[in-house]
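dude i think i finally got it to work??
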Amino acid sequence: MVWEDLGISSGTAIIVLIALYFVIKWAVKNGIKEALGIKDGMEKVDFYKVKEQLKGEKNKLEDFMK
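look at this
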């Protein structure tokens, strides 16, 4: 195997690959957050509040269309 030619045992290779996976995952997640301008301290969205606001907007639109 390629790993044995480099002098790395299979157990060490698996640990290195797992560590590499998590580093890449972390980097991609942070890159997406930075690209979208998402902050770590964002408030969680209260879906019930948003749902009620959308219902209110729907009612306003229906009243306007009459």
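The mean pLDDT is 78.
im so relieved honestly
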